[in-house]
Amino acid sequence: MVPKVDEGENLARMQRGELYYAFTPQLVAARRRCGQIVGRLNSAGELTRREIAEYWKQITKDDRPLPPPAATDEDEDAVLHEYPWIERPINIDYGTNVKVGSNVFINFNCTIIDTCTVSIGSRTLIGPNVSLFSGTHPLDPDLRNGTNGPELGKPVIIGNDCWIAGNVIILPGVTVGDGCTVGAGSVVTKVSPPDLYR
Q1: pLDDT tens digit string along 137-163?
Q2: Cis before residue 89, ω within 30 degrees of 0?
């Protein structure tokens, strides 16, 4: 059984990357909220660029209004540059810890575990089947203790102008510098300096 904790302090600990409990009522509800919106996005039929942006606003709890509609699809893409292009399906844990820059593309089957901040820089391309994990678990099995034990995390930061190719896994605490290309199938476990081609 998850111990009784102060929900506000538990959330603050999660955001700071410290040990916290993921199966408290508040955090279960937060994941459920995100999962329901992501589920609707994934099962929706054909969507316009604006409709995808509306879903993204709900997922990330972004309360800024969208810019007024543009006259053409091409102009609409330019107007909505702050919201990512998303090919579905996508899976996201909380949504509220995901930050994207301008003109970002996220391809099919992306999984984002946003225990801590997951930041994707402007003009970055995320390939199919990419996993971005900012959450992790204690290595000590007694401390880990299944769903009753604590978890922790570290931010994942992807710079501007990166290409994260298909089937890449980026682990907690990794920063991928501006302009990097991460080759298909890579598991990224440490910081990548700018303009690195893996």
Answers
A1: 999 999 999 999 999 999 999 999 999
A2: yes
